[in-house]
Every structure is written in C-alpha cells, then in structure tokens.
Amino acid sequence: MAKVVEAALGTIAGLLLSALLAMVLVSVVLRYAFHTGFIGVEELCIWLHVALIAAAAPLGLDGPLAMRMDLLSRRLPERWRFAAADTFSIVAGLVFLFGGREIVALLGGISPALGLPEWIRFGFLGASGLMVIVLLALQRLSQGRGLCLTASFMAGTAIYLAVPLLSVDTGLPASLFLVVVAGLGLLSAAPLPHAFLAAAYVAIAFGGGLPEPAIVSTTVAGMSKFLLLAIPFFLLAGGLLTASGAAGRLVRFAETLVGHRRAGLAQTTLLTSVFFSGASGSSVANAAFGASTFFPELVRKGYAPQRAGAIVAATSVLDNVIPPSIAFLLLAAATHLSVGSLLVGGFFAGGLMALCLAFAIHFSAGKPDGGPRASAAERRQALAAALPALGLGIIVVAGIRFGIVTTTEAAAVAATYTLLLSLAASGRPVSVFATFRQAAVEAAAIGLLIGTAAPFAFLLALDDIAGLVSRCVSMLGGGAFAVLLLSNLVLLAAGLVLDIGAAILLLGPILLPAAVAAGIDPVQFGVIVVVNLMIHGLTPPIGILVYVVSGITRVSPTALFGAVLPYLAALLFALFVLCAFALLS
C-alpha cells in the first residue's frame, strides 16, 4: 500500500511540474513574440509550486531526500532505529495538519489576480501534513515496525498537545531552545525539515514568537517565491541532459582534451563535471552521474575503489558553484543579492576550484593512466557533438546576466531545450516523464527545506542573532579580515552538522550584514559562503556527496572520507585564495 501511495504522489508531483514548465514557457513566448501575457500567471505558478512541494514532501521520509544524520541511529537495533526520528516527523505532520486547518478556518480574502480564496495555498500544506503521517504509518507497518510506530505516534502526539499548555520562563532567549531541539532532531536522524518545523513549534513553550498558524504561514511564505521555480527546472534540465545522451557526449569531448594526461581518466572526470555544471546546477545529480559512469572505469584502470569514489565526490562539488547553481539561487532568495552577479562570481570561483582539483589529482595519482592523445579532427568532432550541451549553460547565464529573461524563465528555457533533446534521442514520453517525476520529488525536498527554514530563521532574527555576530566581529577588530575569519569559522562549524541548503538559508542573512558593514563586496562574500558550504559535501558527518557516491558504489563512507582528504585540501586552498582576493579588492 505504501508503494501505491508513493507512486500516486510522485505522479501528481510530476504532472504539476509539467504544468509549471508549460505555463512559464507559454508566458515567455507570449511576452517576447506577441508582447502580451496572462494576468496572474506568476501567482498561479507560485501556488502550483507550493502544491508540488506539498504533494511530494511525504516522499522525503526515507532515503537521501530525508537529509538524515544517522551516525548515532545506525547503532540502534533495526526495529527501533527511527523511533525518535519518527516522533519529530509526527510533530511536524500535526503542525502542518492542524496549523493549516486553523489558517483555512480563519483566513478570508480572494486573490485579486486569480479570483481564488487565499486559504487554498495554505490548505495544500495541511493536506501534506496528513499524508506525512499516513505514509509514515504505512511504511513502518510494511517494515514490521508496528510497535515502534505506536511509540513514536504516542510521543509525538503528547508533545504536540503539551506545547500549547506549557509556558516555561527561563530568562534565556527562545532561539537557544530552538537550536537545541533542532539539534536533538538531527542527532535522532529526523528528516532535517521535520527537525526545523518541530523545533519552531516546541519553541512556543519557551516564549517563541510564532504561534502554530504563524509557523505554517511563514513556511508557505518562505516557499512562495517565483525565483524558487528555477530549482525544479534546473533539476529537470540536468536529468533530461543525462537521459538524452548529451551528457555522454560531454564525457567524450572531455576525454579528447585531457584523457592523454597523467591520471587522464580522473582528469576527464573533473573536466566532465565542469561541463556538466553548466546545465545541471545540482552537485547531487552530478555525483550520481559520475558514480555510475566513471567509477567502474576508474576501478578498471587500477584506481583503488575508495580513491575512485573520492575523485567522483570531489569533482561533483563544482556543480553548485559553476552556474547555473541551485546554491546561488537559495542564497539570492535568502539575501536578495543579484542572481546574475552571483552566477558570474561562480564562474571565477568554479574555475579556481577546478584548477586546484586538477593539481591535486595530478600529484595524488598512484600511477599515470593516460591514453593516446586525440587528434585535432577527433577533438573537433567531439566538440561538435557536445555543443548542444555546452551552449546550454552559457545561454542560461547570459540570458540572466543581460536581463533578457528572469532566472526562472531561463531555467524553463533550459528544461524545454533538454526536453526536446531527450525526446529526439529516445522518442519515449514515458521514460521522459520518469525524469519529470524524479526532478519534482527532489525539488519538493529542497522546497520543503526552504519553507521550514523560514520560521527557524525568523525566530533567530527575533533574538537578534545577526547583532550578536556583529558584536563578535567588533570584539575581533571589526575589519574585513575579522569578518571573513569569523564567518568562515562559523560556516565551517555549521557545515559539519547542517545540510548545505539549510546553512545557506539560515546563515546567509545573518553573516551578510556584517560583511557589508566591513566593506566586503556582498557578491564576493556570497560566493565565499557558497564555496565554504559546498566543501562540506565532502566532510563528515553529513557529507552528502560522499554518501551519494557510497550508496551507488557500495564503498564504505568511512573509506571515502579518508580518501577524499587530498581533494579537500585543494578546495580549502581555493577558498583561501577567494578570501584573499576579497580582502585585496
């Protein structure tokens, strides 16, 4: 039964993504070809995006999309492994369900652009909360964990009912308890968005400034931005690029350029990642692609499995730095920095990181494995075949930078372009829709994280955490060097325990004002934030890129964390150079 529900929710999410892509694309065509458009199309897209997140959010209960930190829970008996984590999920589901219902009952008004009741948008999350609880129950029952489910449900319900009745005055800021509860959620392996939501709810008992309906409305407001529609479109473009075979042509072109060098196959892996970054914007997608494409060949060429996996994981970092980058979209949404300027900065940072990784690969290679040098004719032929994929990233960034299209429209154009490539290559709409479904589910997980981070960030702002950071900077001298030093230390520490997207959403708005006050260019600082946090895709205990590669290759995460150290050092050196450049410019 759980599989049937999951398939239905995934199908709904895929259809919603298809509708969103069609509406944005039609809007672009009408505006540029006919100088007209539909009234309210942007607001309708936002509403459908919220519906997409609500439909697919329950699918993030298990698997990589749950963003669990399970270092402690994996030591528990299998039957009780997620008992505490499920308690957080139950609380989160109840907050969505009853908080959403309360908003629906209280909220009046009609959307002037759509002519629809405003409560509908909030009702989506109420229904999603119910589905989280239902699907969690079905999954645990199918796994034979009925007793664990009963314990989790009783504990979660008790917490939910107790919080409104408690008023604990400790004299301490509510954000302290917010962070503590969220930390307990992380340690118990709760899905990260559920830990954020449950923490915001429990903070009510300690004087938190957001009642239950306000938590839900703030969550909806956090995900109700037209810019965020670019995320599912870029994820879709990356998936379709692989499905169309264009990614394979990128590999062949990279091989003709560097395949003859020392550690030629590893260098090809790196250069392919650089090329793939121009279309995907998702490091996780590139890690999965590299693990399935390059890992077997690297091992066959004599690389130790852990070294081969480490190369794939390390080179995948570039996808969220070289434009188009989902990480930069998140930062722009959180701080209102210019997306175009951030993407241009990402070109420089990504090139520097790639150069540092190339040196690390060259000097850490156990033995040279370069093949014969490709002829000029072979390179021209490979370039011609790869041009459709190579031009995609340039078109997207140029369109955004020169104001031809918005970021969301550029992402929609990219997705449509790769859709046509995929249909021309396979001619099978069914397989293409599977890519739509996967992109929608991944985008929903990111969208839910963005939404649930909003009340968390709001409560931190109420307690003036940004002011605390500014005071700490003043104690260190208040200059640009002090800001960069403190910011990098905070980011390096946060990246060890927070998902990359969550850290960007929470810390970007807190650290940026101090950087601007110290005279640091805000775009350069934004690039440093993203690079710093992307490096944590390789560090324990979160290390999402390492876990993705481990899951596909079956190499132990512990072995991968050890093998990735030379490449981690290269990336940290690149971060140092970026910070030095920011200080000197």
Write a concise keyword list for the protein shown above:
26 helices; transmembrane; 0% strand; 585 residues; TRAP_DctM; mainly alpha
Major sheet size, sense and barrel closure: none
Shape verdict: globular
SS strand fraction:
under 5%
Q: CA-to-CA gap between the ends?
A: 60 Å
Report the uncertain regions. none
Number of helices: 26
Global structural class: mainly alpha
* Total number of strands: 0
**Backbone CA Rg:** 23 Å
What string, H for helix and E for strand, traces the elements in order? HHHHHHHHHHHHHHHHHHHHHHHHHH
Helical percentage: over 70%
- How confident is the prediction overall: mean pLDDT? 81
Domain Tripartite ATP-independent periplasmic transporters DctQ component: 21-141
Membrane topology: Multi-pass membrane protein
Keywords: Cell inner membrane, Cell membrane, Membrane, Transmembrane, Transmembrane helix, Transport
Function: Part of the tripartite ATP-independent periplasmic (TRAP) transport system.
How would you concisely characterize the structure shown here?
The protein has 585 residues and is mainly alpha-helical.
What does this protein structure show overall?
- Helices cover 75% and strands 0% of the residues.
- It is an all-alpha fold.
- The longest helix is centred in the C-terminal third of the chain and has 34 residues.
- The mean pLDDT is 81.
- This is TRAP transporter large permease subunit.
- Keywords: Cell inner membrane, Cell membrane, Membrane, Transmembrane, Transmembrane helix, Transport.
- InterPro entries: DctM (IPR010656), DctQ (IPR055348), TRAP_DctM (IPR004681).
